[in-house]
């Protein structure tokens, strides 16, 4: 890590006050369909997605005494899950922090794409078919052979069925350092990889430890959000937009906000035409929403007393207009309605880091101490 002192200070100052002990957190209301995994040790970075055929796809990282594996299981007709399929062929990066989780995308034709960081520092991609029933051998996305810090891939399918992944790449940095870094993009079609550096034209670094985000609309328009570094040293959110063949240069999403020699490890998402992210530039965590680079972002739900944001926002599978916001003492589901973000419900367990909606239920997953936590809430 290139900024260990600054990052440690940030963690102690901003996360320490928001920490809640395992004993004080609400007990998990276990969802029985995940029973095959809830008693297993070493489960991390669990994620749940609703596929186009209505089935659930469960993906997780399992850390054992000798290696770390990436697995998937598909919901079957009777509601149970299939036997786990191992996706990786070579070891994963052993770091299992939630923001470094693998990225997963599903397509209408039953294709699945999973991207992750290997133990070698390479960014890997495996494409599955038939709604997660099988996966091809992984391919390497970065087209260089240098051992470097690469992390936090984000992946999405364009309407033509091509998988596109972005990631943080420090191949130009001194060995063992995460910065200077660039934002890379790779497009994969029929096993062929095309890679390019999206920030090659800027002299400043990309933030080396904040997860980026990529999304496509139905017309094939691409939006990418990531934490960039300005010439003045501000570490704020930038966006790249366009089509894959004609992407813009990075543009700021707000006036300068974050100026600190360390990263907050809090990446953005794009939702409802704007950019949504967790910020701590004022000394407290807050949730920001920006749609105009010339205006100060809006601080969402700032009127709620004793609300500590614990995780960056993320989308809810099966309910695209909903966003999961991790918080203490309870997490939130937020939705953009009538020109503003509204709280849909605020009774989520604070451990929830992945959410899906199916058959009138909000299904939640999370991890604590290497165990899978699950809950289902009626809508």
Labels describing this entry:
globular; mainly beta; single chain; five-stranded antiparallel beta sheet
Task: State the end-to-end distance.
Answer: 43 Å
The CATH topology comes to Neuraminidase
The number of domains: 1
Question: What's the total helix number?
Answer: 2
Strand coverage percent: 35-45%
Major sheet details: 5 strands, antiparallel
Radius of gyration: 19 Å
Structural class: mainly beta
CATH class: Mainly Beta
Unreliable spans are 1-28
Oligomerization: single chain
CATH architecture: 6 Propeller
The helix fraction, in percent, is: under 10%
Q: What does the overall shape look like? A: globular
Q: Mean of residue pLDDT?
A: 91
How many β-strands, per DSSP?
A: 31
Describe what you observe in this structure:
- The protein has 379 residues and is mainly beta.
- The protein has one domain: 6 Propeller (Neuraminidase).
- The chain is built from two helices and 31 strands.
- The strands form eight sheets. Strands 5, 6, 7, 8 and 9 form a five-stranded antiparallel beta sheet that branches. Strands 14, 15, 16, 17 and 18 form a five-stranded antiparallel beta sheet that branches.
- The longest helix is centred in the first third of the chain and has 12 residues, at 4-15.
- The relative contact order is 0.13.
Topology of helices and strands:
Elements: H1 4-15, H2 35-38, E1 43-50, E2 56-63, E3 68-74, E4 85-86, E5 103-106, E6 112-117, E7 123-129, E8 134-135, E9 139-140, E10 150-157, E11 163-169, E12 182-189, E13 192-197, E14 213-216, E15 222-229, E16 235-243, E17 246-247, E18 251-252, E19 269-271, E20 274-279, E21 286-290, E22 298-300, E23 308-309, E24 314-315, E25 322-325, E26 327-328, E27 331-337, E28 340-348, E29 354-358, E30 361-368, E31 371-378
Antiparallel strand pairs: 1-2, 2-3, 3-4, 5-6, 6-7, 7-8, 7-9, 10-11, 11-12, 12-13, 14-15, 15-16, 16-17, 16-18, 19-20, 20-21, 21-22, 23-26, 24-25, 25-27, 27-28, 29-30, 30-31
């Amino acid at each position: 890590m290139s900024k260990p002192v600054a990052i440690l200070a940030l963690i102690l100052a901003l996360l320490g006050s928001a920490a809640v002990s395992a004993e004080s957190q609400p007990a998990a209301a276990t969802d029985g369909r995940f029973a095959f995994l809830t008693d297993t040790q070493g489960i991390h970075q669990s994620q749940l997605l609703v596929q186009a055929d209505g089935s659930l796809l469960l993906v997780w990282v399992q850390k054992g005494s000798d290696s770390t594996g990436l697995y998937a299981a598909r919901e079957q007709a009777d509601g149970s899950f299939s036997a786990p399929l191992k996706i990786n062929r070579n070891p994963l990066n052993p770091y299992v922090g939630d923001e470094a989780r693998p990225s997963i995308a599903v397509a209408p034709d039953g294709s699945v794409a999973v991207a992750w960081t290997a133990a070698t520092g390479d960014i890997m991609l495996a494409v599955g078919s038939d709604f997660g029933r099988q996966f091809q051998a992984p391919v390497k996305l970065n087209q260089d052979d240098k051992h470097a810090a690469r992390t936090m891939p984000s992946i999405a399918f364009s309407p033509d069925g091509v998988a596109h992944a972005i990631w943080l790449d420090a191949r130009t940095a001194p060995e063992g350092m995460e910065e200077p870094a660039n934002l890379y993009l790779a497009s994969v079609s029929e096993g062929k990889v095309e890679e390019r550096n999206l920030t090659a034209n800027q002299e400043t670094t990309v933030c080396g430890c904040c997860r980026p985000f990529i999304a496509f609309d139905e017309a094939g328009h691409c939006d990418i959000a990531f934490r960039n570094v300005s010439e003045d040293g501000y570490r704020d959110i930038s966006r790249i937009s366009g089509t894959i063949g004609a992407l813009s240069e990075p543009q700021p999403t707000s006036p300068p906000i974050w100026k600190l020699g360390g990263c907050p490890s809090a990446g953005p998402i794009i939702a409802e035409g704007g950019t949504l992210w967790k910020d701590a530039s004022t000394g407290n965590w807050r949730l920001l929403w920006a749609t105009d680079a010339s205006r100060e972002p809006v601080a969402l739900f700032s009127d709620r007393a004793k609300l500590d944001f614990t995780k960056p926002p993320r989308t809810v599978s099966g309910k695209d207009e909903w966003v999961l916001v991790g918080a203490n003492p309870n997490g939130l589901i937020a939705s953009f309605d009538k020109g503003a973000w509204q709280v849909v419900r605020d009774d989520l367990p604070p451990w929830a880091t992945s959410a899906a909606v199916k058959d009138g239920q909000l299904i939640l997953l999370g991890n604590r101490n290497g165990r899978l936590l699950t809950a289902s809430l009626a809508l």
